[in-house]
């Protein structure tokens, strides 16, 4: 007889493993199907985020920032260093140790919450008396039954047509997080979040990096003033060579590396590099899921169709995370995981996609929540803007890092905060205050009247709120 569960989650990335834990916390008998194997061939939980995404990229970002800071940032503090070298093997080893600690941590959480880990590939095969039937293949194949199924199969890197990714010379995020040496010349196709983050890592470690971007504008999703400031810092100060509005032609792997033919402003150009990172977006994982076998609706781009509560067209089948609409961000998937577990348990739950924070972990970091100034203009929403720079904040001066500003946008009539945009080394931490404020539908006046610790970077958010009412105190 088939093993039966209240909930079977397919995929153990941040959306799936968090959904499974919440379901188990609510007393539901839960299993999670996961097919991932780590480079040693061992089954691993955690999905893209823990294995080849958020966690390893941030480990390398930190290592590369420490290196660059040692080389260029210490002198201003009166600290002289010499003979600074990088051991890439050790750096990658540190990253792998962090990944292993995190993925093993999920195994512990699964044991603690009595979640059954079904190792292998999961796919729908039908519906029986006990609910949905999911076949798990890999080791000894078995079919399990579930009253509710949560699809959390995530996404994978989109590749360029006709350009095979070998993860050695031409890489996506997987290979780019595991280089064994610093490539002298690195090409990056795509100036999105992942391309900029990974390009920055290897630039800091010594690569000459050229980024080729199809769009004519830079960081189109960000507020224009932030994108402009980021462009200035990345290109002028840091020497990142970003070429916009290019059309990629033939990509040829040679004995020496890769040659990328491209067009820019009608001119034929070539980029010769030792390694190429392809970061042109991600596509949802629905291959081999058996969607057709049960009539699960998938749209033309491969995303599973869901409503606001992540319900699919099938009764008691939910889909969450990167495999559905909305930003491809780990924390968005996690909250959807919590929501669907609570819905399955009969509770009320929702996720507010309007207050999802976005972060780009470049140096300085870029973070925002809510709408950009250009979106408010396009929607004819009356607003007031307040902006304050880090360059006159005492804590930022102490850090020796005064890049960027906080910009707050609030409705002209109600003063409700509509968007907060931050560019600064600690933007990922600072944005949390803005998310809380917006979730509580705060006014800029609320932030302006809240006491912020001195000296702290959060004072810049305070001053930006004051600046909405044209009463910034320190400028
Ligand atoms: C380099 C990089 C850096 C990133 N940095 C950040 C960041 O800093 N912050 C952030 O918020 N987001 C970041 N992201 C995005 C983030 O990783 C994703 O949004 C997140 O992992 C999505 O979670 P998920 O659970 O939906 O899917 P995934 O993490 O992709 O997990 C899906 C899991 O499902 C498994 N699976 C798929 N199909 C099946 C099947 N049929 N049977 C069994 N198992 C299956 C896969 O093996 C995988 O383990 C980054 C991504 C990359 C690539």
Can you give keywords for this protein?
alpha/beta; five-stranded mixed beta barrel; binds flavin-adenine dinucleotide; five-stranded parallel beta sheet; single chain; 26% strand; 14 helices; 475 residues; 21 strands
Strands ordered across the widest β-sheet: 1-2-3-4-5
> Helix count, per DSSP?
14
- The helicity comes to 25-40%
| Strands, count | 21
The percent range for strand residues is: 25-35%
Provide the list of bound ligands, each named once. flavin-adenine dinucleotide
Low-confidence regions: none
- Rg of Cα set: 24 Å
Give a description of the structure.
The protein is α/β, with parallel strands linked by helices. It is 32% helix and 26% strand. It is built from 14 helices and 21 strands. It has helices spanning 14-25, 47-52, 54-73, 88-112, 173-176, 193-204, 224-237, 291-294, 330-344, 373-378, 394-399, 427-439, 444-449, 458-468, and strands at residues 4-10, 30-34, 116-128, 131-138, 142-151, 155-157, 170-171, 185-189, 208-212, 241-243, 246-253, 258-264, 267-273, 275-278, 282-284, 317-319, 358-360, 365-370, 383-389, 405-411, 417-424. The strands form five sheets. A five-stranded mixed beta barrel has the order 1-2-3-4-5. A hairpin with a 2-residue loop joins β3 (116-128) and β4 (131-138). The longest helix has 25 residues, at 88-112. The mean pLDDT is 97. The site of flavin-adenine dinucleotide has 37 residues, from α1, β2, α2, α3 and β3.
């Amino acid at each position: 007889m088939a093993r039966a569960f209240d909930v079977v989650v397919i995929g153990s990335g941040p959306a799936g493993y968090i959904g499974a834990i919440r379901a188990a916390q609510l007393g539901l008998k839960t299993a999670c199907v996961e097919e991932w194997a780590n480079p040693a061939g061992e089954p691993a939980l955690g999905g893209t985020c823990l294995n080849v995404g958020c966690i390893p990229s941030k480990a390398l970002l930190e290592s590369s920032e420490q290196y660059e800071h040692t080389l260029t940032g210490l002198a201003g503090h009166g600290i002289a260093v010499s003979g600074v070298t990088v051991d890439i093997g050790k750096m990658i080893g540190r990253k792998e140790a962090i990944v292993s600690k995190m993925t093993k941590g999920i195994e512990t959480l699964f044991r603690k919450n009595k979640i059954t880990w079904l190792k292998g590939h999961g796919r729908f095969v039908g519906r029986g008396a006990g609910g949905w039937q999911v076949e798990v293949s890999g080791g000894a194949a078995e079919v399990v039954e579930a009253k509710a199924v949560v699809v959390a199969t995530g996404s994978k890197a989109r590749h360029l047509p006709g350009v095979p990714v070998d993860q050695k010379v031409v890489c996506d995020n997987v290979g780019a997080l595991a280089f064994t040496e610093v490539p002298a010349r690195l090409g990056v196709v795509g100036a999105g979040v992942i391309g900029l983050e990974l390009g920055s890592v290897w630039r800091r470690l010594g690569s000459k990096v050229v980024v080729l971007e199809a769009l004519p504008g830079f960081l189109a999703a960000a507020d224009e003033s932030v994108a402009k400031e980021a462009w200035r810092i990345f290109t002028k100060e840091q020497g990142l060579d970003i070429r916009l509005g290019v059309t990629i032609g033939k990509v040829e792997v040679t004995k020496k590396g890769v040659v990328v033919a491209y067009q820019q402003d009608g001119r034929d150009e070539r980029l010769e590099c030792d390694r190429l990172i392809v970061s042109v977006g991600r596509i949802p994982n629905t291959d081999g899921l058996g969607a057709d076998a049960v009539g699960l609706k998938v749209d033309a781009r491969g995303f599973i169709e869901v409503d606001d509560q992540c319900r699919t067209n099938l009764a008691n089948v939910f889909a969450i995370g990167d495999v559905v609409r909305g930003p491809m961000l780990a924390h968005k998937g996690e909250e959807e995981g919590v929501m669907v577990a609570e819905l399955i348990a009969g509770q009320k739950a929702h996720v507010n996609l309007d207050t999802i924070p976005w972060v780009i972990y470049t140096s300085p970091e870029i973070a925002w929540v809510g709408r950009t100034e250009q979106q408010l203009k396009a929607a004819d929403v009356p607003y007031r803007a307040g902006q304050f720079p880090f360059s006159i904040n005492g804590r930022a001066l102490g850090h020796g890092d005064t890049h960027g500003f906080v910009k707050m946008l609030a409705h002209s009539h109600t003063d409700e905060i509509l968007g907060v945009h931050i560019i600064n080394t600690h933007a990922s931490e600072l944005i949390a205050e803005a998310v809380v404020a917006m979730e509580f539908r705060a006014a800029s006046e609320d932030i302006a009247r809240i006491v912020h610790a001195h000296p702290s970077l959060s004072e810049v958010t305070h001053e930006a709120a004051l600046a909405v009412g044209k009463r910034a105190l320190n400028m």
